[in-house]
Structures are given as structure tokens and as C-alpha cells.
């Protein structure tokens, strides 16, 4: 899969940031992404190469909860509106 963006590097970064936020705010993809990511990390994602191989890894980790940013589950501090990826995290727990 490739993405072609025209213009400067700053424009490309800005457009990719918009796409990432759209993804994190999408109720289908954002939530399912986190669920799949956590299942892969703990070896419980059926069909993934490490399925059943990590019996001692029970709890996945998220890079960042609050503060926004590319890996944040929340758009700001702990009182801010969560991204849909937060719902995936909450569902996993």
C-alpha cells in the first residue's frame, strides 16, 4: 500500500496527521485496531503468527494515554474527549 502526497514535507506531515486522527476517531477502525493490536501483543489474535505463544504476557501496553499526539488514546488531558481507540482499550480490559 502506498500513499502519494504532493507538496512540501510539512504539507505531507499535516495531511498524514489528519488521516491518523480520522482513523483514531472512527468507531469501527479505531476500536478494532486497538483490540487487534493488544491481542497480537498477548498472543491471543487468532491467525496471527504468535497465536498461543505468549502465555505469560497477559496485559498489553499503550504508548500514551493522555496528551494527544500520534499514540494518545485521549485528545488531551484525562478530562478530554477520548478517541475511539480508547473504546478498544476499555473493551479489552
Please characterize this protein's 3D structure.
Helices cover 43% and strands 0% of the residues. The chain is built from three helices and no strands. Helix 2 (29-42) packs parallel to helix 3.
Q: Quick check: average pLDDT?
A: 79
> What's the β-strand tally?
0
Helix percentage range: 40-55%
Structural class: mainly alpha
Tell me, briefly, the overall form.
globular
- Determine the strand fraction and express it as a percent band: under 5%
Number of helices: 3
* Computed Rg: 15 Å
* Number of structural units classed as domains: 1
**N-to-C order of helices and strands:** HHH
Query: What are the low-pLDDT stretches, counting only 5+ consecutive residues below 50?
Result: none
Largest sheet: none
Distance between the termini: 32 Å
Descriptive tags:
93 residues; mainly alpha
Set down the secondary structure blueprint.
Elements: H1 9-25, H2 29-42, H3 84-92
Helix pairs in contact: 2-3
In short:
The protein has 93 residues and is an all-alpha fold. It contains three helices and no strands.
